[in-house]
Amino acid sequence: MSIETATKSEKQGAKASLLSNVNFAQIYRKYGTVLIFIGICILASLLSPTFLTEANLTNVLRQVVVVSLLACGVTFTSSLAISTCRSGRCWRFAV
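Now predict its structure.
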């Protein structure tokens, strides 16, 4: 019986040491956005039977394309403004 108890306590100690090595804050900082996105998708698919249909996913992708193109344009414009100011010629851009 003492051998079984020792192996159980060793297993619990090994699990505790594995969990103590995991830094949840670092994982959340690194993968937090992806985990939240996956959680929202799972929640939406459980609450609405039409969430994972082809028509809905196509609609979502069409809406995301517009926002993504706008974000790329803003990023390009911002990087252009920063690069022209660093070269010594600061242009005034309408923001």
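Residues 40 and 46 are 10 Å apart (CA to CA).
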